[in-house]
Amino acid sequence: MILKDARQRVVNYLRISVTDRCNLRCLYCSAQNQEFIPHPEILRYEELLEIITLACGLSIGKVRFTGGEPFARKGFPEFVAEVLARFPDLDLRVTTNATLIGPHLAFLRERGLKRLNISLDTLDPAKFTRITGRELFPEVWANIQSALDLGFRVKINAVAMKGVNDDELGAFLDLARARPLDVRFIEFMPMGGSDWSPESVWTAGEILEQARGLAELTPLPRLGADQGPARVYAITGGLGRFGLISPLTDHFCGTCNRLRLTADGHLRTCLFSDKVYRLKGILRHPRLGAEHVRRVMLLANERKPLGHDILEKRARGRGVCGTPMSAIGG
């Protein structure tokens, strides 16, 4: 069956956080004094396989593993390989900060993983340390190059923040010119625990205006595997592409096609809502299990809200999403 919500949006994409733990402490992601989920409360890999099986039965054809940092979880590369072997038709992707992936790149490529999203907000090593709290930029840079050499399709995702990386647009465009990868800027979102303020938002419109002064850009249609919220541009004379994701100033809620599963088994139908559907207890209940999880997934999707409504309420002091991004899954 095709999974549709009450607004007739087709949902075919599931983002799964395999852990809330991360080896970085990015200023926009981790809450201060965040308490991590105890290990027994994290969904086991076999439980994740059950949920992926259910999702595929609901015509979800794209799954992305996120964190926290997924490679911080023991056994994650082997789990990815198992999913690829069990679901050969699934469009499987991984989002990572690329600090720990290096030893696993060749293994994952050999097992069939094709696409990586790498979170990288700066190309300045010193600024990287200030943003993340860790001196790991050389590892990230080396792993990006290794991923490209192995034939991965790489997307670099940078959170756009005024006063932080708004002086680096030219450097990111140069990166996309020189290498066959996508560079995408994402508007800074008001998630729980972050240092967000309206003054810190570097809007997609502002970025595009500045980018057009630095490069000749041609808008590209959203086709096939590239369908999604990003507006993507070819760069004349470049090997890569440039993209913008604008959840605040030009929302895409009307075409949202995704669900999110947190590491402790909470299904979220909207990034900006704290409403969750608790799947783990159902999955582990001796008299319930997978079929009841499927029913809850159908019910949750039927009630999927419009995120921009929640953001508008936030502007009036209500409807704040209080959950840190690292606990939701990027």
Spell out the key features of this protein.
TIM Barrel
Amino- and carboxy-terminal Cα gap = 27 Å
Using the CA coordinates, give the radius of gyration. 19 Å
Tell how many strands the DSSP assignment holds: 12
Enumerate the strands of the largest sheet in spatial order, edge to edge or round the barrel: 7-8-9-6-5-4-3-2-1-10-11-12
Query: What is the CATH architecture term?
Result: Alpha-Beta Barrel
User: Please, what is the average pLDDT?
Assistant: 89
Beta-strand percent range: 15-25%
Specify the number of helices.
Answer: 11
SSE string: EHEHEHEHHEHEHEEEEEEHHHH
Spans of at least 5 consecutive residues with low confidence: none
Molecular shape: globular
- CATH class reads Alpha Beta
What does the largest sheet look like? Answer: 12 strands, mixed
Please indicate the count of domains: 1
The computed structural class is alpha/beta
What percent of residues adopt helix (DSSP H or I)?
25-40%
CATH topological fold name = TIM Barrel
CATH superfamily, by name, is Aldolase class I
